[in-house]
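User: I'm curious what two different proteins look like when written out as structure tokens. Can you demonstrate?

Assistant: Sure. I'll show them one after the other, since each token string lines up with its own sequence. Here's the first protein:
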Amino acid sequence: MLKTIGTTALMCSTATLAMAQMQCEGLTPEALGLSGVSFTEVAAVPKGDDNPAAQCRIRATTAERKGTDGRDYALRFELALPDVWNGDYVHQFNGGNDGEVKPATGGMGAGTGEATPLARGFAVVSSDAGHDGKAVADAGLAGGARFGFDFEARQMYGYKAVALLDPLARQIVEAYYDNEIGHSYGIGCSNGGRHAMVAASRMPQSFDGLLIGAPGFNLPKAALQHAVDVQALTAVTGDLATAFSPADLQTVADGILQACDTLDGIADGLVMDTAACQASFDSAALQCAEGQNSACLSPEQVTALNTIHAGTPDGGTPFYSDFPWDPGIAGGGWRFWKLESPIPPWGKKPIIAVMGAASLAQIFTTPPTEVAGDPAALEQFLKDFDLTARADEIFATSDAFPESAMEVMTPPGSDNPELAAFRDAGGKMMVFHGVSDPVFSVNDTADWYAKLDANNGGKAAEFARFYPVPGMTHCSGGPAVEGFDMFSDLVAWVENGTAPQAVTATARASNRDLPEAMAGISRPLCPAPQVARYTGGDAGMAESFTCE
């Protein structure tokens, strides 16, 4: 629950904010007591279709320098200061390779509900994490990852940008409103979720609450999975796009549903009991029997699926993690990441074959490997990547790169987490992850949470809760009920002491992966290790399910 303010205090606050708003135009770094910061735009922006709240928007640059690669670097950011401020602050952690200042709203595809934090009155900051993803235009699709040749740019991307920007943004917020920030939050999904987990480890007293979606906290390891995927999938037909048709993936989903749909007490197109499903589903059942040529898979397809779900081609230890079987494999997001995209400049290659390849080559291995920026060359890099010989390059260092990619990117202690400093500072975190996430495995996050719980004597839930989202792919989407507002639950936990329980998720009409039969339904998302089970009543309503 958001803080309430008495009538008199609200009138005074409104008057103060009105004065602050009048000072927006012409605002300078000097007026806010800043040094080493230049404002590139300061504007009073009215509420509109692309702007959820009237605000003073500041776009700025700091930490300008010349990199060891001879290129210019800086940390660019956007700070949204709403006209009606609720007294709180959100640091928006962005995804992918960063390199772009996303609009500072605090909203995510799933997890923050229909109203963004900015629309609710939070001041919000967003940044590019210290590099411009379009600065090396002549490198084609590899340009967004070319910053990996500069060690400090790697560090900024990994952890320094947040540490540098956060106190600066807070200083601006408090100077602008002439008031201290009440509560502070960090929000992000994917690489943004990783940023949030890094903050919990490296800046344990900075955030009262962290909302963490699909955290890629082992990002360099996940990049190795790209090579596992491309090599396994290409072996099916020689071409990623034709390895599995959409109908083939629906066959997989149907097979999983046949084995697992009723394990939670009802057949509804959702597998809520993921753990039980792994024991019940046998991928061999998907293979065509003699004389069968439809609604089944070839032996090569079954082998490829087994390899990418195991995370290793030979049955050994995964290079990254294993992945669970889940019917969300039929979702468009799964195909977009692993098989093909609709993007002509990418040669219709999937994300892993273009953006993922460039990142593995130039950011997540040491020394970095310069790759050509055309789709075919990037895909070929993953086809040729010798996992046995080169996987350890994510742990390698050199004189030019004294910290390995794993040291730069992963939260310290994430292999055996306790988060004692964050816990003892009173911090709270809520973590959610799609069970059918094709790029960051929910199993990796589940393993992390199990260790966190064990290292806190079985009481991690007192400050951290983990919510798997069945059917959801990466951050949102998939044949899933993935419309939910976990941010409000986090705020209530931080500011009211109301610990979150089940979070109600609804079927979003905008979700193109949603089967017609799921339209309008709701389900509870249960904190792990609980599972939502049908206990009677209207099968379309969350109230008919119990977390057990």
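Here's a second, unrelated protein for contrast:
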Amino acid sequence: MTAPAVPQRLAAPEPGWTDTVDVVVIGSGIAGLTAALKARELGTVLVVTKDVVASGSTQWAQGGIAAALSPEDSPEEHLQDTLVAGAGLCDPDAVRALVTEGPDAVRDLIELGARFDTQANGEISLTREGGHHRNRIAHSGGDATGAEIERALVAAVKRAPDIRLIEHALVIDLLRAEDGAVAGVTLHVMGEGQLDGIGAIRSRVVILASGGLGQLYAATTNPSVSTGDGMALALRAGAKVRDLEFVQFHPTVLWLGKSAKGQQPLVSEAVRGEGAFLVDHEGKRFMEGQHELADLAPRDIVAKAITRQMLAAGKDHVYLDARHFGDEKWRVRFPTILASCRSHGIDPVRELIPVAPACHYSSGGVWTDLNGQTSVPGLYACGEVACTGVHGANRLASNSLLEGLVFAHRIAAHLAKGLPQLREPAVDTRVPGLVDADVVPELQRVMTVGAGVIRSASGLAEAGAAVAKLIEQPAGEPGTPGWEATNLVTVASALIAAGTVREESRGSHWREDHPDRDDQHWSGNLDLTLLADGERARPGATFVPQSKENRQDG
């Protein structure tokens, strides 16, 4: 199967204004805002975000942030749990950086003003989630950790007069110098203030922190801004994207009926960490015997078990039972989830919670080294848009906030050695293109069916053929809906290519026609780049075997 060809760059009017800064940060979640706060010591910083500054995925993180903060815990134990969840594909050096630098990074966050829940003695209250063998999840407001972290970071950024912020702006493409290095970005500001319409920002460095690809699927926990923009932009710029086939589906997302689309309410893994358990329609527990941690098994295992249960019973959801918590525990520990359930007519104090898997997190993304550098000089990436090697084939619960935090610190530390020179943008001779904005609902349906929790060669081929037809539909005038649609089909094309090539089941990539993990042939990573194909470009996949010294049994 040949992956669908996509535009080499986005069709857009020529920039009507220009500006110059040292560092452009794309995205305003934990990764982007941390990077901005650290980079401000090195030069002028501009943060560009698609909506208001607090609109990204960070604010929706319920469970918490994982770090070895307890005397009973250790970075080494956190490392081992991460490697096991990553199913043999984690980069041990990246994981070691995460778990050893993580505790201090969390303390730095606290000094910045983030408030975590504490015990009576004043120590941070730590809980457990799937895949963890220790209580190491720091949380805030019970189940509002992301919102508290985002609040603290936004407040710190707004206190910093040397950080500029452009909201309601979609970055279109990278500006590149003759040698391919970063020279800045083009962007579209959606009618806000003096900087209106298409503009160009020249910069020495661009840091991608634009989040994930959740809107590629019909049901997701991601906000509406998660349209794969950073991954698509990086691919068009010639960057290497790694392991895009590993899309994590959160096992317990509130099931709102067959017609529900878009962002769906998450029922945090922390609910199971506190003792809730999954049951089928007969009230029978089905995770016992599936894994040593039962309902707290890594997410890929729980999502697969739920999907099998649904297929076997001919149902479209299962249930989570947390009735034994009682009213007070629900109100104190999970007030956000309690309110969300009740707003949809479900009272978890007295009723079972209907749940089903939904797209949650991309473990793959734009490849970076340990300093957050991508394969394009001057382009850095951190957070969900990046593939640092931390997550492998399946992210361990609550490692995502920590990864964004730690690798934003690492990027700033690397840039402190010296920013690259400001480059002159070269003339872009690639053929521009655009996809019809109206294809998105059908694209989401196609990807959910053919490249969702369960995959096969035939299903991926059908998805690829369907995406190719969607790309051929005549596009309208350039604008945010069309640019987002083009970014989505670009990422879909690459994901389909990767999912087709990897003929095994590992972590969050489940091939029913290759149901077993195959370390002999597939112990390694898949790197994707866009290759010119006439007026368009097509993703090509290269398999990179793991070196023996880095191989993990996971």
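A detail about the second structure: The longest strand covers residues 353-362.
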